[in-house]
Amino acid sequence: MKTGLRLAALGGLVALMFSLLLLRMWVLTVTDLEVALETAESQQIRTVVIEAPRGDIFDREGKEIMAGTVASLRVIVDRKLVPLEQEEGLIQNLSALLGIPAVEIQAEFTARGSGARFPLGDEIDEATGVFVLENNERFPGVTVEAVPVRVYPLGETAAHVVGYIGAPGEEDLTRPYISLADRVGKFGVERYYDRLLRGTPGAVTYRVNARGNILGVIEEIPPQPGGSLVTTIDLDLQRFVENTLLSAIALARQDGEPVKRASAVVLDVTDGSVLAMASLPSFDPAVFSDGRLTELEWIALSEKAAFNNFAIQGAYPPGSSFKTIVYALAAEKKIYPVLQEEYQDLDRSQDPTLFFSDGELRFPSTPVLRDWKRKGHGLVNLSESLRQSVNTYYWSIALQIWLNRGVGYEEDELQLWARQLGLGEPTGIDLPFEQAGLVPDREWFQYNQQNQTGLVRAEGGWAGGDVMNIATGQGALTVTPLQMAVAYGALLNGGTVWQPRVAESVRDSENNVIFTNLPSIIRKIELSEETVAQLRADLNGVVNGVTGTARPAFAGFCDDERDFECAALQDVGGKTGTAEIVQEREATDPADIPEPNQDPYDYILRQAEGRGDEYYGPEIVEAQQAVDTAWFVGVAPLSDPRWAVAIVIDQGGSGGRVAAPAARRVFQYLMGEDPDPLRPGADTER
Amino acid sequence: MRTMNSVELKARASVKPDVVLLIVVAALTALGIIMIFTASAPRLETAGGSRSAQMVRQIIYVGFGVVVMFVATSISDRTWQSLAPVVYVTALLLLLAVLSPVGAIRQGAQRWISLGIMDLQPSEVAKPAVVMALAVLLAPMTEATMRWLRIAKALAIAAVPAALVFVQPDLGTALVFGFVTVAMLFVAGTSVRQIVFLLVVGLIAVLAALELGVLHEYQVARLTGFLNSDEHALSYNYNQNQSQIAIGSGGLFGQGLFEGTQTNLAFVPSQSTDFIFTAIGEQLGFVGGALVIGLFGVMIWRILRVASQARDRFAQLTAAGIAAMLAFHVFVNVGMTLGILPVTGIPLPFISYGGSFYMSMGLCVGVVNSIWMRRARVPGQRQMPE
Q: Is residue B381 a part of any domain in this protein?
């Protein structure tokens, strides 16, 4: 090869190389122009989201803050601005500054991902903030910002109504303006009214250079602060109810009962407002917003089920407190108890509701049923049956319905009535995770039998005994305290089933009302005035009558001892209940009941991964142990019903002994009497 | 000998330097000064300095470079041939000095010797030195006499400075020596078979280096980074991504001088040195970039033309080596900014900011002109090995 040729070849190679460059440049500048321009544009612009301050939550007066937002100084790391080779040094410096182990910071960095912007550590004081800003070369990509932090001044008071905020779940992320770094309502009204409370975030768009230095503002959209929520909660009453429940728990403990929790609702029966709603044990919602909650504390709290609002999530058998509902049906529809053979010649011409209670009920194809009072109550009519809580009476009414099913009554006449009053369905209160409870019927029974869910016996069909069980508030029937308050309210206010509500209104930052939660009626049921009047009288008989099961608990209701009649007590009425869980009940093999997911570790993981929403709390059907859950549901003033009170002392013993005294104290408060300390009432309905 | 001398005298009297080559150099230099200003002014302003500080320094460097160029031209190619060993040894000593405590460390690399007014970068001095040393060694060779021993010697001549540069660390310059050596071996008559063998050995050596960890981690990351472009957009690939965005957003005609947002907002690092081509691409577009590459094309063509008319083998190989070196610089530098070649830190001749580099390139062009002015027009007058 001639030298000239070799030089030419070298030239050719160079020409080839340069052509390659030109080709590549053509692709970049002409073919991919759009992409490059877009990328160039986006990286010269930085948009910083300005969180909208979350709205406050107030009591019904709009005065006391139940949840608020304060600014808290935090260290913010912007990994986009941290050069990779300086990251290790930065982590060391941050560790020294914040007192967090470097390993944990490293883990946080990894979890957040490259290019993320996030706050690190707890609140810092101003001096630390200034130190960070002055030593920026040691903290590249780190700024100090005032971050809004949710505070709950009331602590554990009304925590279940207020709720708490936390990391967004998958579902939350599909909503507009919600990113992983945000906090959303997870429970209580914080969750239910999250949209209104959170407002709309603003944004500032800056023009920046490669170092992230801001060169100018392009656009600024101010955030729209969230609305402030006024609840229906009467905080004084709320505190009083919570204290009373605490005393009631203590009282039951003295009796050696395995009491674990208690819940209560005070409902305004004229419009459905919830004046107080308590569930003990409670928790401090702030532990969720500032991350103070340790894993151990979490486990301890969740084992106590402190995060569940048992007033709406606790589905208990109502026990005898359900008799009021049966009573109203019997009075309204003139359903009289079936007389046993030996009492067939009882003269019922004066009072067709008469019945002789000898403590036992024997009927073909039904095992012998025994009253809680072994020797029986003797001759009773409908009124006495309620005051003395006569089980055989209500079984007999159920039997009447059963025997005349398809003739005079529907087979599920009783269940339909209960559902009319709002049982077996969520009340629709503006709080999340409400339980529906259960009003069992043939359909439900057959479904569970066919699918072998273990909730019903494997053999035999739906029977009269099942309906009789319902009539005394036992069996598979479950209700929540709130449902009972709503039902009692409807029976005594003349038939209006109010939808309960905890939010009154939402106001924007200029105090304009942007949302009003108007009282809403679920349905009106037909109820004769006579029935209502009779019910009022007999519910008063329970607390005030000589034979009333709650009379001992309500003794000394009035302050003035000379007030012999005790006018205030004349105006109070209610019914005790003891949900007996009989172990032989076939439906209650604990192993067959599907266990709700209660693994606290799993829950923590879900929360961390933003999947917390899948957890609806255990559906509490207290069927595993042979223990009694104490109920009292009452209404006052009877002359013009205003309040319905439902109290449940979970595994607290008999209703007359612990629940009725607690209710008495609440009614004393409501009726303007001096509340007396709790003392045990009569042991009834065992 | 006497006749030769008279020819030389005659040639010197009648021949002008390659004006086209000088015009190309002048054009690229002028463009370089403008681009350095556009790329550095916003940064200097942010830093609170004078907007034109870097440009003024470059103008001073260019002044020195022009002087070096004319001195180099005035020295006869024969004299250069006799000086070549001295220049080569001097370059090696300077490279050793850099690694001694005399050397100054900038941005983590020990590449400079501080001379007060400016920093001398010995690896730039070594570039023409290696070319001329190789030319001296290979001048007597023909296709027939090119043996492996001679090839090995040539490789050794390049390998010593390459190794010294490599440990600075300056991978790019070491690669320059490799390319120049292979190109000059080819022009000197090495067979294609031998070249292929050398390339295969070279490839194995590179792979071994990657495997054995001879390279610094960041070097490996840079070399392989461009292969997986979007994975680590914020780390090692940052430079190249920003660079491609800058060039890409220039479009066909560019955004205009001082209008480039990427340039103005300082998104491209080292923009007045290694990444100067991005300033050209963004502000002057495809047309401007193509013009620059075209000018370099003309430059290479002119130098190869000088090589083809050189009066002897040394001059021819020197010119060819310089052409190869310039071409490699342009290819690797522009290829790097376009994202098709790894980031190795090789500047763009006559355009990138830097005194040593400009003077070194000026010297090369000066030597080329020296060869041109003393060329032999008639092939018969050329003294080539038989």
A: no
